[in-house]
């Protein structure tokens, strides 16, 4: 009777890997995961886009000061997380398209138009996607806050709040509860004002930095109002 | 190809790409970009982190997937009912996705499978329908619209598009309902349910349609109930039930009901 020795199995129940496992095929991957979390909240007359500033790869941190929010127009900010190379290229392409639009149409693109355009830019690479999770925050034509969230190939929708990136699964339920009042009974649905929203964003990122290794170092908040875009930087855990 | 033309990007050489066969029912599986080339160069665009887990699992790009949508014809037109959940792997990315795409005031398209694939191609279909209207000075028929969509995606057959949609409308031959998917299927029918939760929805609608001559209200209730039951049993469906009714004047949105509230309502009715 063959008895399987415990020596060959690791703690998680799977076989342990030995030093030599036979010929191993090494493959080039055009992608890498650089971490980072992005969050956007839309209010009555403002929008907030926030991101951490840590750029990591594997076990290393490449930079502690690499924010993921990019200003597009006076009324729109985009947050991009995922593969940093694709984030950079994508924002360059968006900037170029914004300039082209401004020259042909003699006006700036609205947030809704930028969102629709980004969807087609992303889908153009349907078979070799930009590995970027995008969230656009800004003001719509009526001056109300708008948030648009995307998947890597261009599916998008307008939201009130959204978290994207490495800690998104941790942040989104917290936002659902605090901004959407989900899973709470008998609570007054108070509208969100700007001060409370900024404080909530700070609290939420502090929580994310506690539990997600790819999030931390500092938090960059961009507040979009009709007066313009204000930036604020808040330190986070550096470990 | 249509995609390259519309987006004015340099066309990509697709000749290398082999494929894994994937029907839209794979909305149950995590989508990964599994493009394996036929020859020996073996490029696999799966995202790999240097610190992979002990079992070497790869972090893959995850698109939005998983759904229940249904549509059926009845005496007074077509009822279209959908859920609103989008999943990226096991994470629920959104509970408020619009899975009914309003192509024009008398045509609706539903979304199942890859969210970006469905919304992109149906938006392109809306453009084509408008061009048809301008050229021919009359509305496009449901059969023609569904054929346009089917032909557009057939060019990409084998490349990994994932789309299972129903084109619903009312034209001069009466109510129209076609099912079109990325495998190249296009079928006309009286009842379709598409997505990971479709089997549960079929059960409810099949039993409810036994009595002929439903009123509009009864048909709407049936559609709503079917989606609710599917969300109850299918993990990948949930959120809200969006209900549309297509009649001779066009379509109108009947209701949007949260599944949790529906659950409480049906429980109360049982008691």
Automatic annotation (TrEMBL), chain A:
It is found in: Cytoplasm; Nucleus. GO terms for biological process: proteolysis involved in protein catabolic process. One of its GO terms (cellular component) is cytoplasm. SUPFAM superfamilies: N-terminal nucleophile aminohydrolases (Ntn hydrolases). It comes from the Eukaryota. The keyword Disulfide bond does not apply. Signal peptide: none annotated. PROSITE patterns: PROTEASOME_BETA_1, PROTEASOME_BETA_2. Pfam families: Proteasome. CDD domains: proteasome_beta_type_1. Component of the proteasome complex. Belongs to the peptidase T1B family. Component of the proteasome, a multicatalytic proteinase complex which is characterized by its ability to cleave peptides with Arg, Phe, Tyr, Leu, and Glu adjacent to the leaving group at neutral or slightly basic pH. The proteasome has an ATP-dependent proteolytic activity. This is Proteasome subunit beta. It comes from Oncorhynchus tshawytscha. The gene is PSMB1.
From TrEMBL, chain B:
Transmembrane segments: none annotated. Keywords: Cytoplasm, Hydrolase, Nucleus, Protease, Proteasome, Threonine protease, Zymogen. It is found in: Cytoplasm; Nucleus. It comes from the Eukaryota. Belongs to the peptidase T1B family. Component of the proteasome, a multicatalytic proteinase complex which is characterized by its ability to cleave peptides with Arg, Phe, Tyr, Leu, and Glu adjacent to the leaving group at neutral or slightly basic pH. The proteasome has an ATP-dependent proteolytic activity. PANTHER family: METALLOPROTEASE TLDD, PROTEASOME SUBUNIT BETA. This is Proteasome subunit beta. It comes from Oncorhynchus tshawytscha (Chinook salmon). The gene is PSMB5.
């Amino acid at each position: 009777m063959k008895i399987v020795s415990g020596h060959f199995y690791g703690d998680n129940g799977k076989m342990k890997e030995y030093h030599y496992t036979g010929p191993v095929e090494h493959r080039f991957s055009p992608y890498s995961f650089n971490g980072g979390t992005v969050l956007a909240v839309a209010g009555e007359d403002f929008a907030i886009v926030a991101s951490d500033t840590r750029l990591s790869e594997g076990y290393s941190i490449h930079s502690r000061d690499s924010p993921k929010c990019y200003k597009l127009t006076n009324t729109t900010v985009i947050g991009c997380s995922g593969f940093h190379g694709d984030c950079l290229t994508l924002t360059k392409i968006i900037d170029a398209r914004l300039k082209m639009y401004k020259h042909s149409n003699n006006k700036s693109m609205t947030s809704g138009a930028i969102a629709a355009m980004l969807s087609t830019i992303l889908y153009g690479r349907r078979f070799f996607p930009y590995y970027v999770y995008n969230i656009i925050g800004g003001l719509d034509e009526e001056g109300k806050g708008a948030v648009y969230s995307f998947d890597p190939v261009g599916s998008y929708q307008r939201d009130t709040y959204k978290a994207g990136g490495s800690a998104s699964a941790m942040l989104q339920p917290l936002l659902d509860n605090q901004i959407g009042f989900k899973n709470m009974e008998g609570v007054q649905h108070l509208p969100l004002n700007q001060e409370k929203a900024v404080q909530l964003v700070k609290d939420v990122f502090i929580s994310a930095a506690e539990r997600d290794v790819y999030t931390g170092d500092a938090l960059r908040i961009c507040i979009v109002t009709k007066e313009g875009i204000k930036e604020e930087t808040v330190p986070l855990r550096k470990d | 190809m249509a995609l390259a033309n519309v987006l004015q990007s340099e066309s990509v050489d697709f000749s290398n790409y082999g494929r894994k066969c994937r029907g839209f029912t794979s909305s149950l599986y995590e989508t990964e970009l599994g493009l394996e080339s036929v020859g020996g160069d073996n490029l696999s665009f799966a995202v790999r982190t240097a610190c992979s887990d002990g079992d070497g699992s790869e972090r893959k790009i995850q698109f939005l997937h998983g759904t229940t949508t249904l549509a059926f014809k009845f005496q007074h037109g077509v009822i279209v009912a959908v859920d609103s959940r989008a999943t990226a792997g096991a994470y629920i990315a959104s509970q408020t996705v619009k899975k009914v795409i309003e192509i024009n005031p008398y045509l609706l398209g539903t979304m199942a499978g890859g969210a970006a694939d469905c919304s992109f191609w149906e938006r392109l279909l809306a453009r084509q329908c408008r061009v048809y209207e301008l050229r021919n000075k009359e509305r496009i028929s449901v059969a023609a619209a569904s054929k346009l969509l089917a032909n557009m995606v057939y060019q990409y057959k084998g490349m990994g598009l994932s789309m299972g949609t129903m084109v619903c409308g009312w034209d001069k031959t009466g109510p129209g309902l076609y099912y079109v998917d990325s495998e190249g299927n296009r079928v006309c029918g009286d009842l379709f349910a598409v997505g990971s939760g479709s089997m549960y929805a079929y059960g409810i609608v099949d039993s409810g349609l036994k009595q002929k001559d439903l009123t509009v209200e009864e048909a709407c209730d049936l559609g709503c109930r079917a989606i609710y039951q599917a969300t109850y049993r299918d993990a990948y469906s949930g959120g809200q039930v969006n209900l549309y009714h297509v009649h001779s004047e066009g379509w109108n949105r009947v209701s949007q009901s949260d599944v949790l509230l529906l659950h409480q309502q049906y429980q109360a009715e049982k008691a």
